[in-house]
Q: What sequence folds into this?
């Protein structure tokens, strides 16, 4: 599927068609108002900037077992959960495409077009990951990084801006990787960041200086048990609820790792920063 290259603004009206079943990413959509197809579990969300119910119904008729469950009309700001303004997190300044605040001395500016993908910097796990990345990179020794569940690519962008030379950003959702690639280009970091559409657990075999995984617990529990996990030097594990974090920490207690810091925001979202003690 091809999406419109134009940037979304807070007052842009979105027309969203909620479909039961998976609409293939390769299905052609010719409308210039089409933004993208977000697939979550066994459901699809088709996004347009103009009414397109006829197109949605045409797509549904093409594949068996698809059904239009609902349709929504809302502003881009409402979809993202509120006002979309420049966000300051530690030393990082995240600017949307339509307004750019000037970075203060020692601030690192990142231009971020989150599209309809969540990851504009407002979520607690994104903020904790950015703080953890700044700590891990403080010694200027992080030259390679693996970002699993990259979403908009904001964490990969931040690490590259801190001097990391080679970053692989992975997401299983096609629209997320498409959005991340756009942000890599917006920040002129194509020579440092490679965005890959694939499963997180299939990309840990290569050793890196920093692994960041902001993903579901069902993936995380297998990730920390994978052979490649202990090949990473620093690691940041996020997107975890308190009970899930306790299970991860219980497993890691018997592994050659050192837990450096834990974030527990609003007693809900947890992030872990650690380093492995495995021999190289």
A:
């Amino acid at each position: 599927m091809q999406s419109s290259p134009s940037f979304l603004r807070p007052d842009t009206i979105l027309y969203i068609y909620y479909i039961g079943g998976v609409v293939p990413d390769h299905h052609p959509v010719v409308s210039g108002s089409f933004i993208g197809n977000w697939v979550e579990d066994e459901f699809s969300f088709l996004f347009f900037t103009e009414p397109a119910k006829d197109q949605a119904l045409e797509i549904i008729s093409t594949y068996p077992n698809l059904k239009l469950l609902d349709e929504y009309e809302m502003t881009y700001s409402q979809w993202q959960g509120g006002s979309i303004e420049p966000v300051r997190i530690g030393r990082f300044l995240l600017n949307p495409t339509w307004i750019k605040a000037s970075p203060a001395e020692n601030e690192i500016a990142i231009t971020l077009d989150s599209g309809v993908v969540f990851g504009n910097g407002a979520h607690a796990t994104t903020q904790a990951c950015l703080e953890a990345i700044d700590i891990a990179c403080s010694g200027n020794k992080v030259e390679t990084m693996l970002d699993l569940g990259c979403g908009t690519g904001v964490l990969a962008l931040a690490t590259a801006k801190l001097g990391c030379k080679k970053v692989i950003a992975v997401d299983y959702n096609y629209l997320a990787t498409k959005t991340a690639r756009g942000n890599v280009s917006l920040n002129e970091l194509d020579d440092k960041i490679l965005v890959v559409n694939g499963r997180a657990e299939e990309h840990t075999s290569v050793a890196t200086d920093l692994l960041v995984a902001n993903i579901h617990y069902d993936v995380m529990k297998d990730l920390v048990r994978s052979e490649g996990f202990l090949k990473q030097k620093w690691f940041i594990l996020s997107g975890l609820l308190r009970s899930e974090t306790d299970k991860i920490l219980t497993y890691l207690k018997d592994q050659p790792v050192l837990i450096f810091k834990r974030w527990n925001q609003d007693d809900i979202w947890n992030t872990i920063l650690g380093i492995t003690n495995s021999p190289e």
